[in-house]
Amino acid sequence: MSHDPVDDELKQMDENADQLDHKIEVSVTLGDPIRALKLQKSVIVDPGTSIAEVTDSMSRESVGCALVENNGKLVGIFTERDIMRKILGRGYDHQKVKVGDYMTPNPESLHLDDPIAFALNRMSVGGFRHVALVDRHEKPIGFVSVRDIVDYIVDFYDTTIFNLPPEPLREGWKSQEGA
Q1: Which of 28, 71, 105, 119 is most buried as measured by Cβ atoms within 10 A of its Cβ?
Q2: Does residue 46 lie within any of the structural domains?
């Protein structure tokens, strides 16, 4: 009787999927507070900061947005999407153009103790990749990104996710033998 390693691998993947479904129900709760996430460093600037300085700071910190603060309050958010849609290719002098002129004003915001589900809701409904985080006085303290949430979920299943084969096995497809 021949032994098919692909069948064994598919069986193991099915068993892992059953375990994963159970773990999702037990371990990952979108009711956990946003503070449970490993949040990225934040770039917080005032509206008079040049686009050049903001983009340099975002690049240096490897983040996709900057929060704009005026008098201790969140007044805007400036994202990579704003750079692509509002700045690039327009011939602006990035040293002179100010972030306050191109930010998204009055962005949605949440608090660290709000459930992760609310961040996902804001992102899905609003089409955002970043949601600003503020303290109880509306002072910006950071942001939550789609990546933060994905990383949080992956942490629960790191062995399952990181031990997947390099390519998905698709039913009816034959894998090529040899090198």
Answers
A1: 119
A2: yes
